[in-house]
Amino acid sequence: MPSTEGRAPDPRPARTRAAIFAAARDLSATDGEVTVNALAQRAGVSRAAFYSHFSGLDDLMAAILGTMFDLQLERAQKLAAEGRGIQELVQSAAATMVAYVDRHQAFLRGGLEWKFSHRTYLILVTTLSDLHVVALEHLGDKVPAHLPLQQTARFFAGGSLDVLAQWLVESEEDARAGKEVDSFHLTVALLRLLPSWYTGLQPEDPIPEDLVDGDLFADSLDTED
User: Fold this and answer.
1) Are 111 and 100 in contact (CB under 8 A)?
2) 8 Å CB contact between 131 and 72
3) Which residues contact 45 (CB under 8 A, 6 or more apart)?
4) CA-CA distance, 218 to 145, in Å (whole number)?
5) Structural contact between residues 192 and 169, judged by C-beta atoms closer than 8 angstroms
């Protein structure tokens, strides 16, 4: 049998996933109904190919939004390597999440209409709350002693996702009218809603405007097709 050692990885699975991501983005952004059949047809793949990568729409949406959490983690690792404090990482994580939602707002707005189960939402809350747990653990004594860590992290995660979803709904009319939708106030809202002992920002403190590294988005959803 010929050896496979040293062979380049097969690019086809990555291309298939990219085509499915692009199909999901395009169908959602253009008000097309998102079903497995529609996705497969738009992506130019078979249903079997779709199911070889994703178990269904729940799994696909979780994978797509998982890129947002990957970007948060990547940015946090860069800042940590620079010696930044955990509260600066919290600020950056919130801003990175808003920037991702802003960049993919048409897709995500359409994604709110997907026929997927509540399980996807719970997966997203759990994934985001895990990131909050790490931050809370690093803060140590700065976290009020009466707060249960896991529940606090889940509260922050669920609240943040709800604020983001509400912004997508409220900004839809302006976006469809071709108006520029400003998302910086959304970053401000998230950081003001989180407690100051967590963000390191007092009510009178200005919100830093350089919290997001634009280079993080080079491999984000809109370049995967």
Assistant:
1) no
2) yes
3) 16, 19, 20
4) 41
5) no
